[in-house]
Design brief:
This protein has 14 helices and 21 strands. It is an alpha+beta fold. A hairpin with a 4-residue loop joins strand 3 and strand 4. Helix 1 runs antiparallel to helix 2 and helix 8 packs antiparallel against helix 9. The chain starts with 14 loop residues before the first strand and ends in a 10-residue tail after the last strand.
């Protein structure tokens, strides 16, 4: 038996990921009928859209079809409700970018549920374009199958008109099984609309977006009262209202995530947005769809339990070997052993290919990371220069230009609005604020401003530590270093993970203090460290005293 592992065949150009998804096949009848209908739907799409011609015998048995370099292989094990398909085909004549598409598709029953996986990759015969769009045939395949991921992926928006549906929405966006983003679209506040004489209800056409984002994201439209119900239920820092759009990525954790980790776009930003040769809401919609596609390319999914063709061949050979174990026909057993050996060779070649692709993607990601770090550093420098110029030119004293909130509930949003790029409140610090007992929330904000401005200026060489300490004394504050005896256990309160979601552990080296009383109403402590990489103060705890650990 010749190897059919053309995915791992030697190629001059590497495979680039284009699209991937893992979902369930929605039950509509018994599981066997759903399994058969899914294979029939796949057969119809392939016969109609792909260059293999009509599949006369369907895909209900093992097959291998080849024509002019286009190849389709499939493995089916009915008793396991397992179907796996792999194909390669070149782009149609007249396509401006020469390329070859590679599809891997798998269906298998696990615990009474039909799991589905699909990944599409491309090989470009010349330099790959900067913007890679999936083949149109892919969306025909997605439309044909009843895919389900907490909700049906039917290309229709979820319209939420009453606050009673908000708990279900929160449960959905918080599900760890969700692997697609959720786009929340809020209704315009007509009384605050100034762009045109007649305000629209929504800036984004949710029907158009949901249709074109099918298989890439879920789209949710929130009526005006539902935005407030959402904010009240999930917290102010995740609000979305008055025409704004919020994107919640997979793995959303409202307690531990920072809002900056997810996308938020205000109505002013959307209305004036420019993308390619478009502007306004049309430009924003095009940008959003392009971003969803790019994010899908980079998504890492867990394929555990699914069988691509090489692995399915190995499993099928093992099942057949068991069936032949009691037979005395040595010739048949020898043929089966050869098939099993070739299947294992294909599986090994696939694993080597995947490792090669992963290494190439990791190297590309590392290169991109270095590039964006340098870009970020340059932009920060530019912002610093512009900020200094505005500060020197303004006749309004800096202390009067930034309003100070009077309650702890307002502090996270205030930090995001006025101290962004200078000071970061870690999620743990934000969670401490609703339970804060220190009596003066405005003083906490003044202390944060001193860190974001005077302390940061001293760190960057634009000011002096002496000036910072002098200003601290004016508010009755002083800075203290965390003593080694205070960091006694690896998991103690003085250590945080930073950057967010990384395993890198950082010590809260300093704290800004007021008072020595153990009464939390009169004792202020803001624990932080200086991050050299981002030139920001990172606050990990406030406003109460952390326990001192000595063991």
């Amino acid at each position: 038996m010749e190897s059919n592992n053309y995915i791992a065949a030697n190629r001059e150009h590497p495979l680039l990921p284009i699209y991937k998804i893992r979902a369930e096949l929605s039950k509509n009848g018994n599981i066997d009928s759903v399994f058969k209908m899914a294979i029939d739907d796949i057969t119809k799409v392939l016969s109609k859209s792909f260059p293999f011609g009509k599949l006369k015998d369907g895909l209900e048995k093992n097959s291998s079809i080849g024509s002019n370099g286009d190849i389709l292989d499939n493995v089916i094990i009915p008793e396991r409700r397992l179907f796996s398909l792999r194909m390669r085909y070149a782009n149609q004549a007249g396509d401006m970018v020469p390329r070859r598409w590679y599809y891997d598709l798998s269906i298998i029953e696990q615990d009474g549920v039909l799991n589905f996986g699909l990944q599409v990759r491309a090989e470009f015969f010349s330099r790959s374009p900067s913007r890679i769009m999936p083949p149109p045939e892919l969306f025909q395949l997605l439309q044909a199958l009843p895919l389900y991921q907490g909700r049906l992926l039917d290309g229709k928006p979820w319209i939420i008109s009453t606050p009673e549906k908000i708990p279900a929405l929160i449960e959905f966006v918080s599900s760890p099984q969700r692997t697609l983003p959720v786009i929340l679209i809020s209704e315009i506040n007509r009384h605050r609309w100034t762009f045109t004489p007649h305000p629209p209800s929504f800036l984004i056409n949710e029907t158009y977006l949901a249709e074109h984002a099918r298989g890439l994201a879920f789209v949710v439209r929130l009526a005006f009262p539902c935005s407030f119900a959402w904010m009240e239920a999930i917290g102010k820092r995740w609000n979305v209202y008055d025409g704004a759009v919020r994107v919640l990525l997979p793995g959303f954790d409202r307690e531990n995530d920072l809002p900056q980790q997810h996308g938020f776009y205000g109505k002013e930003w959307i209305w004036h947005y420019r993308y390619e040769d478009m502007c306004g809401t049309r430009a924003f919609t095009a940008y959003l769809l392009s971003s969803l596609q790019a994010d899908n390319d980079r998504t890492r999914l867990n394929w555990q339990g699914l069988y691509w063709v090489p692995a399915a061949r190995v499993l099928q050979a093992e099942i057949e070997m068991v069936k032949l174990a009691d037979e005395t026909n040595a010739s048949e057993r020898e043929k089966m052993l050869l098939r099993q050996l070739n299947a294992l060779k294909d599986r090994n070649a696939e694993l080597q290919e995947n490792a090669s692709v992963s290494l190439a993607l990791a190297e590309e990601a590392e290169s991109n990371l270095r590039y964006y770090k340098e870009q970020n550093r340059a932009l920060r420098g530019r912002v610093e220069a512009l900020t200094a110029h505005i500060k020197n030119s303004s006749k309004v004293p800096p202390e009067k230009s930034v309003p100070l909130p009077s309650t702890y509930a307002e502090i996270p949003e205030w930090v995001n609005q006025y101290l962004v790029g200078k000071l970061v409140l870690l999620p743990r610090a934000e969670r401490m604020l609703p339970k804060a007992q220190f009596e003066n929330a405005r003083l906490v904000c003044q202390a944060l401003r001193l860190l974001a401005e005077d302390y940061r200026d001293a760190r960057l060489g634009n000011g002096s530590m002496t000036d910072f300490e002098r200003k601290c004394r004016e508010f009755g504050l002083y800075q203290s270093a965390t003593r080694p005896t205070q960091v006694g256990r690896e998991d103690d309160a003085y250590i945080v993970n930073y950057p967010i979601e990384s395993r890198q552990r950082r010590v809260l080296k300093f704290h800004l203090c007021k008072g020595n009383s153990r009464d939390p109403r009169y004792c202020l402590r803001i624990y932080y460290f200086w991050d050299e990489e981002s030139s920001q103060i990172v606050v990990g705890s406030l406003p109460g005293h952390l326990d001192i650990v000595t063991s």
